[in-house]
Amino acid sequence: MATEATNGAAAGETNGAAKEKTVTFTSLKPQLFVESSKASDAVAFYKAAFGAEEVNRVSHPKRKADQELPLLLSAEIKLGSSSILISDLTDDSTALVKTVGTGLVFCLETEDIEAAVDKAVKAGAVADGEITEGEGACCGGRVGKVKDPYGVVWLICNPAKKCVDVEA
Amino acid sequence: MATEATNGAAAGETNGAAKEKTVTFTSLKPQLFVESSKASDAVAFYKAAFGAEEVNRVSHPKRKADQELPLLLSAEIKLGSSSILISDLTDDSTALVKTVGTGLVFCLETEDIEAAVDKAVKAGAVADGEITEGEGACCGGRVGKVKDPYGVVWLICNPAKKCVDVEA
Fold this sequence. Notes:
Chain A is α+β, with helices and mostly antiparallel strands. In chain A, 15% of the residues lie in helices and 33% in strands. The first copy, chain A, contains three helices and nine strands, in the order βαβββαβαββββ. In chain A, strands 1, 2, 3, 4, 5, 6, 7, 8 and 9 form a nine-stranded mixed sheet that branches. In chain A, strand 8 (142-147) and strand 9 form a beta hairpin. The longest helix of chain A is centred in the N-terminal third of the chain and has 12 residues, at 39-50. The first copy, chain A, starts with 24 loop residues before the first strand and ends in a 10-residue tail after the last strand. At the A-B interface, strand 1, helix 1, strand 5 and helix 3 of A face strand 1, helix 1, strand 5 and helix 3 of B.
C-alpha cells in the first residue's frame, strides 16, 4: 500500500515530510470500460452518435490464444474539447472497476506522479499499490493509483514520459 | 420513450425524416454522484487532493423538511482543462445511476439538443423521456437524455439557453 514518494532527483532533498509541491495536471480523461471486445464497437458508436473523433488507439499487449482480435487497451476519442478513453474490460482492469458500462476511472495526467499521489494521499485518498509502468498502464506510461473517499479510482499517469532514463 | 424532435422553429421545415444536421458539442462534463449530502465534502476533497478549482455551485431547489442543508444539485470543478460535476445523489438522480461513487453520467453541452438526441438515437442510443427543462436538469437548463448501448447515460443539455423565448 505504501507509495514511493522519492524516485530519482524529482523529490529533491527533502525526504519523508516533504514540503508541499505544486502539482499541475495537464489533462483529465474519464476512462470507460465496456464489455470485453466491444470497445471497438463503442468507439464506432460514439463517432456515429456524437461525432466523436478518434485521436489515438492502443491495442492490449496481451492477446489470448482464443482471441481473434486483440482487445483495446484504450482508444481516445475527442468530444468537444474533452477526451474519453474507451477500453475493453480485461482481467487486469476488472480490479479497477466493478461494473461494465458505468464502470469508470479518471486518468489525471501530470509530469510528477509521485508528488500528485502524495498530495492526494495527504488529503485522504488511499494509494493502491506502487507506481507502475509499461504495458498495463492506462496510457502506456508510468501510472500511480489512488482511491478517493467516494469510491472513485484515479489513475495518475504520465503517458508521455518513458522510463528508459529513470534507471540511469 | 418518444422524443420530440421538433420544438419550435429549431428543426426547420423538415419534420419526421429530417436531414442530417451538424451537431456541435461545446463541452463534455462527467457528472459524478456521491452519497447524499457528501457532495460538498467531495468538492473540498478534490480541491485538497488534486488542486481542483470550484467554478460553479448550484444547490438543489428542493429542500426536504428534515434536511439541515440543501443538497448540491451540482458543483463544477475544474481539473486541468476539463470540468467535472459533483452532485448529491437524490431521489431524482437515482434513476440515472445505479451506484454511488462510480455512478456517473456524461453531460454533453450543445446549442441544439433536439438534433443531438436525434443523431444519437439514429446511431443506436435509446431516448429516455422527453426533453425537459428547469430545476431538475443537470445544469439548470434544457436537457435530453439518451442511454447508449453500453449502459452509459448521456445528458444532452443546453445550460446557457433559458426557455423563456421558446414558447413565442
